[in-house]
Design goal:
two-stranded antiparallel sheet; about 55% helix; two-stranded antiparallel ribbon; single chain; mainly alpha
Length: about 170
């Protein structure tokens, strides 16, 4: 609706379903589901605290790190995302069974799901609910999603090219 697209083609719906099935198949943990910069607090004694757990549930081990590293509130460059992800991967025992490449692929899939969900929420909250503060994160979110799609294309080569082209055109 935000872009005035009346009909989502079936091949795009299938692309979204493929991402959802791929993320659903990933190792499960208790995830925060809104693990982003605004939900991380630093106490006066420099301790770190996390807030806003009402959406927590079981899901992909990669979803929360995807939320944090592709956060439109911050918009980290891709190379920094790669460095932080690799540090996280090496520290996280739950994902050490994955190869480096499989962990990256799973992270990218979870990142696509999370960032598209966040953009949908920003559009809904700003346009439908009238909460204007979310509108300013739509453009940074779109920019992050374009960068993320670039990483996804490297990963999958020719898989779903027309769906990716449709999404990239909608983000332009």
């Amino acid at each position: 609706n935000f872009k005035g697209i009346a009909e989502i083609p079936e091949y795009v719906r299938q692309f979204y379903s493929l991402i959802a099935v791929s993320v659903e198949a990933q190792h499960k943990v208790l995830m925060h589901r809104d693990f982003q910069s605004q939900n991380i607090m630093v106490r006066p004694n420099s301790e770190i605290a996390f807030v806003d757990f009402q959406g927590a549930r079981r899901g992909s081990a990669f979803y929360d790190i995807a939320s944090l590293l592709w956060d439109p509130y911050v918009s980290l460059p891709v190379e920094m995302i790669k460095d932080f992800f690799e540090y996280w991967r090496m520290q996280n025992k739950r994902v050490q069974a994955y190869t480096k490449e499989d962990a990256w692929d799973s992270f990218i899939q979870a990142s696509l799901q999370r960032l598209m969900q966040a953009l949908g929420a920003y559009c809904f909250l700003s346009r439908v609910k009238g909460i204007q503060k979310f509108e300013k994160y739509i453009e940074p979110g779109k920019k992050q999603l374009l960068a993320l799609l670039g990483e996804f294309k490297k990963m999958v080569k020719a898989t779903e090219p027309e769906a990716i082209e449709f999404i990239e055109k909608a983000l332009s």
